[in-house]
Amino acid sequence: MADEIKRREFVAIVGVLGATAVAGCSSTAPQQSAQNSAAAPSNGAQAQKALATEPEAFTFLTPPEQAFVSAACDRIIPAEPPGPSASQAGVPYYIDHQLAGAWGNGARMYRPGPWRQGTPEQGYQLALVPAEVYRAAIRAIDEHCNKKYNGNFSGLTPAQQDEALGGLEKGSIDLGVIPATTFFSMLLANTIEGYFADPLYGGNRDKAGWKMIGFPGVAAVYTRHIDQDYGKQYVVPPVSIADVQQGLVQDDMDQMHVAMVRAMQPRNSFGKGR
Amino acid sequence: MATKLKSVDALTIGVGWTGGIIAAELTKAGLHVVGLERGEYRNTSPDFQVPQVHDELSYAVRLKLFQDAGVETVTFRNDASQTALPLRYLIGFLPGTGLGGAGVHWNGTTWRFLPWDFETRSKTIARYGASMLAPECTSQDWGITYAELEPFYDRFEYQAGIAGKAGNLKGKIQPGGNPFEGPRSREYPNPPMKTAYQSALFRDATAKLGYHPFVMPSANVTTAYTNPDGATFGACVYCGYCERFACEMYAKSSPQLAVLPVALKTGRYDLREGVNVVRINLDNTRRRAVSVTYVDGAGGEFEQPADMIFLTSFILNNVRMLLISGIGTPYDPSTGRGNVGRNYAYQANTGATYFFEDKTFNPFMGSGANGMVFDDFNGDNFDHAGAGFIGGADINVNPTGGRPIQYHPVPPGTPSWGVAWKQAVAKWYSHAFNANAQGGVQSYRANYLDLDPTYRDAFGLPLLRMTFDWGPYELKQSAYMADVLGKVGKALGASQTAVRPLKGHYTTQAYQSTHNTGGAIMGSSPASSVVNKYLQSWDVPNLFVLGASAFPQNAGYNPTGTVCALAYHTADAVLKRYVKKPGPLAG
Fold this sequence. Notes:
The complex is a heterodimer. By secondary structure, chain A is mostly helical. Helices cover 38% and strands 2% of the residues of chain A. Chain B has a single domain (3-578), classed as FAD/NAD(P)-binding domain. Chains A and B meet through α6, α7, α8, α9 and α10 of A and α2, α3, β5, α10 and α12 of B.
């Protein structure tokens, strides 16, 4: 790793995390096989502690929907190098939790009628919330797959699955009131979110999405780096929200983010004795 | 029946930058001010702290700090022949809400507009002749000049701790700054931001092309700074969580840092959050605003009288409040009569991504405004003869933090999913960067704001209806800027350059900008504007309407510097003249 910067200030990763393989540019990222990481994490005991905060359980998706989502997001982000597949990274759990939660139930969505079809420039105009879109769309897609391929989407060959997803992307499959492109865009966006969002949301397990691209995660002080060592990759084990909250990272007493913020907290408080 | 409250000297509807500036200036002068904010109370501690505030999903994707479309949205159509439909999700532009408003989640790019921007119409005619202006173009002069506003730009920059390098000090061009800017009375209060590798390459390449790159002026404060009122700031650490996020470092200038503590320290500022103003009440003459009516979280209705009322919400809400309250004459595009809602404009962005097989970047290092920029193609800094448009764009590279849900560039032609997509994401994440030409938008007869006849908000009030499409200039301007961005790609030695000129109709379905402007525009005559140069309503002289709603058309810059300079200009006129002799401010 000739391009690696030796970092002093930011965060020193303590304990077992500090001894893990260092993730960096794609060519050096360790291949993660995280399918059973909560039971047998590749990154040791401390990582296990952080990961164990998110239990693996579905709350919204039915078993056939779980099968569809796992299979579909694994065609969107397959298992081929340089990182785990979407389902290996926990993305189906991420999608399940999002659908069960505020977003899936129409948070920040204007819901009053009347409803009518709009132009592409006017965007989403369905009365359905995302959870309802998934439920209706998956049923329609499996019906389509049974007619065309004689089986549910999850049982098809990868080539057939890619063909079906391509049909959704192009809008050539009939999903009733839901435009296929609307559902496909939602599924694609959610899969990418689950792969790269903080692991606390159920995906990006073992921070595999971040390791794949060399993203350092949540804690970051780059004052001494941003204009130094031009062209050198800044390589660091990524840090998640849970890592900080559970004390798995600490500063090196130089210019650490968290420590600085703590020192500054009494300043500028104002108003009504708050 | 509304509970009538005790009258105060002044109130602001909204507490963001403009409401905070008015509060600070008026309370310092001994006046009592009430701040009415629809959103929640929030402050750097404990609300904006790590690690929670560095959560891309919650803040940048699920839009934690923004207006909830479930409560209030906007209806939209490209032209008046269509039926406007509600934006069921806010995507293309993102109004803020909560204490501090968009001053909490902004990037911090802080410009002064060019002298030309304030006199767009007259200077265009003077240089190119009247035929240069398209018949449907309703862009006009602002009724104020750069020279008049200069002291107030200076006030804001020192109050907010802006970082930058002057390019023109009292008419003398300075190395390292923007040679095209109007004259400044003094240097910025803080030194410019550090330059990332992407920006350094862009600087060298654009200088080689003969352009004039400089470090983008920034409200990401670069030193531990104390402003003239004693408010303190920390220094930016380039954490890469800035726009769409709130700053935990006390380093991104905000109303919470720069002005609200000043107002609260006087003991004359009464801040009320979680209250929605539903109406400005006029007296029988319709020439005086007597109070506002607001609703609290339990449905309680209150009437707050005040001698002066400052409408200081986001531009869309400013225009809607005027229309709901029956102040001024609504604009009618079929006759051209009326001014409220007229000259709605926006920002026309042209993007580019440069890919490098042989160069490595750290895209996650950055801040909201730490880039490199050149102004050679902005305003009227270049000859537009034959160009087919007026105005221009600031062209910049601004590494704001490569948070991976929203930043994972892949070259054109890459599939949008599957193995090839995944491998391209991994390959290019550290080997690419974006540039943007942030173009101005002129105003046109057919682009306007009014009240929607069908859809209502959670309070039962009509939603604002936006009718907008690109005019004859914007697509030509974008093609022109795309060409420049392509040349820059060659000069950079990029392995691949992808440029994205605007095409077709304006769409609300991809984020473009929250630099919405106009609808309550300023000017020198009540015949062609809603407010005078002090942002005072022509119709109701004790009402002032602050913000980018006053821009008669939009420049190729971020608006906040000009919005806040105008707010200081208003405060100055109110304190020096209006409070001594209430009434229309002439001259």
